[in-house]
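Same chain as my last thread, 334 residues:
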Amino acid sequence: MLLREYFEKKEHENLSPYASFSDETKGREKEQEKCDIRTEYQRDRDRIIHCKSFRRMKHKTQVFLAPGGDHYRTRLTHTLEVSQIARSISRALRLNEDLTEAIALGHDLGHTPFGHAGERALARCSGTNFRHNEQSVRVVEKLENDGRGLNLTYEVKDGILNHRSACKPSTLEGMVVRISDKVAYVNHDIDDGIRAGILNENSLPKECTEVLGHSTRDRINTMIHAIVMSSMDKNEIIIPTVEEQAFSELRKFMFSDLYTNPIAKNEEVKAEKLIEMLYEYYCDNVDEMPDEYRTFIKDGEKKETVVCDYVAGMTDNYAVEKAKELFVPKFWQN
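reply #2:
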């Protein structure tokens, strides 16, 4: 028996009947020989970790644009924190932890520079309904690996596509990631808000903290326990009403007091303008994009789509440097 087959057998012995089993995947768009050691979902996780888009997330904004400290979250650290929370829930519910981890690690691969400010700017200037979750799927299907994509399984791509609030994943593992994303960003953004001096524990709504806890650690722990205990041996992921209401109110507070706070967001107007300038420039000068992107246009992709691909894939630092190179006059040198 191959080691992969042993792991697949163990999944059927140990996991919940509601889990997604590796040997029952709907498969990949392009058929290929299976690994003799890793299950299909383990293989997907590894492909995501080793791709270029994953590495670039370390230089992409989470909430605070260009923060003046080493301990603020980036898109990559957020992703790792989502993965940790989601894996804890999946393990407790006896779901497929490998599938959960693959979805969590890939869910933000298509995020733009400067966080949601960049996303808004690209949607506006391209005249499309640009969404980072859809772009994340495009990354793994098309943009990575020199246009060949990562050829991930259906279940991983479904979880990545449907991690936003308005969407519904087809697997419990995808639902776990969808909830874990919110648990992670609300609580860790509180932590960063406190670090920035914008928030403090006493400024948080007392009706929320009395239910969820008085520290980031306690609030995450409360949510994990509530989800696990309510969802055990069920074919759905449930947040109890009391915790759900408290968390929803805390999330509303964050949108009003942090995500739109002028101190945290005072540079976003500049960031959006910068993204618009880059988009318009490369639409007019497609020959100045890297070869891998020009190839997509030659193969029939719309120019506007490929320019979005290029700009969305930039890190914050790279976008700023490109803007300086293209739009800031240089001094004459002798």
